Description:
Layout: E1 3-7, H1 61-66, E2 70-74, H2 83-87, E3 93-96, H3 106-111, E4 117-120, H4 130-136, E5 139-142, H5 148-163, H6 166-174, H7 180-184, E6 194-198, H8 202-211, E7 217-221, H9 228-234, E8 236-239, H10 242-245, E9 251-254, H11 268-271, E10 278-282, H12 291-300, E11 303-308, H13 339-358, E12 367-370, E13 373-374, H14 376-381
Parallel strand pairs: 1-2, 1-3, 3-4, 4-5, 6-7, 6-9, 7-8, 9-10, 10-11
Antiparallel strand pairs: 5-12, 12-13
Helix pairs in contact: 5-8
The structure holds NADPH dihydro-nicotinamide-adenine-dinucleotide phosphate.
Amino acid sequence: MAKVLCVLYDDPVDGYPKEYARDGLPELSGYPGGQTLPTPSAIDFTPGVLLGSVSGELGLREYLEGAGHTLVVTSDKDGADSTFDRELPDADVVISQPFWPAYMTAERFEKARNLKLIITAGIGSDHTDLDAAVRKGVTVAEVTYSNSISVAEHVVMMILSLVRDYLPAWEVVKEGGWNIADVVKRSYDLEGMHVGTVAAGRIGLAVLKRLAPFDVHLHYTDRHRLPREVEESLNLTWHESTADMVPVCDVVTINAPLHPETEGLFGDELLSTMKRGAYLIDTARARITDRDAIVRALQSGRLAGYAGDVWFPQPAPPDHPWRTMPHHGMTPHMSGSSLSAQARYSAGTREILECFFEGRPIREEYLIVEGGHLAGAGAHSYSTKE
Ligand code: NDP
């Protein structure tokens, strides 16, 4: 019987919800492009409830304990004396989410003597040292597509809120003010602007599709070019590299995984090639940008605005400079953890666990590392240092 160690974010400060803003969730028939929604044999939760926090337990307890396994759930994940570190040595399976990541460093791999499977309940497994997983023969899987559309919607919201300068206007209303000039002096229309995405995978392409009706000029760069009919239907301009694309864009959105090719990509040098007054949105991973270079670009006016929901480390410390830098629209890491997304990634986590315990193959599109190699989706989108 296995021990499953699951790291989740804390419950709301006023306690686990007793009621919700809406009754249930819309039913989806599948993901864009035909990938099926998660297919566990059953679920033991009501879609639409809070599953991503400690008391929600990703809806897994009944299933795991019913099968004789042990489930340990904690939010205490950092520091050598954390509950996570104490529970890790005999854990067979580790589950965590990018929103509140259990950083699976090479050092922790050494401690985790029984570890066979790491599941990212969501998308983006960069909090796991993939080289170490390859070396140790540990399988890494994530719930591909579970929150891609959730993030794409967040990106569109952030682009509009920065360009139109929505957040400062909302502050003025809350403070009882009414100076129109104050709230329009940095407010523009998105129409006619050049918008580019770094990567056009599931999220990047969904952002492009959602922005097309805004009558903007759409650009992208990616390691693999999209099919010609997709480029034509959205009137996309493809660029060989990020460096080629950003100088022509008014708005840039980053939708690539964090891996050796993308780490630190947006530093002083690349930012200096952007148009004065460009907007940058990063909901992918914070370390794709250089933290202090972003602050400098906002202070100098090179960037007119920066938004996103990804920080390093997470949780971000109270004195993280992005909390106080000018013209930002940051949120805590939340875009991929809407109640809608939680229902999908919880069901997908259960599907992966069922496959693992029953000795059935995990879907290719969920696999990042397997059998000592990058595999499935991981082989397509990630790279390792070694
Ligand atoms: P996909 O795997 O569908 O897409 C990633 C794309 O990035 C692929 O098209 C890949 O190219 C491309 N890519 C990889 N490296 C580069 C590079 N060096 N330059 C340009 N493009 C590159 O993933 P998703 O779209 O679903 O997710 C993307 C990322 O978003 C995740 O890895 C995660 O970090 C982040 N994310 C954030 C969430 C949040 O809550 N904020 C939630 C979900 C995801 P190709 O495959 O063609 O080689």
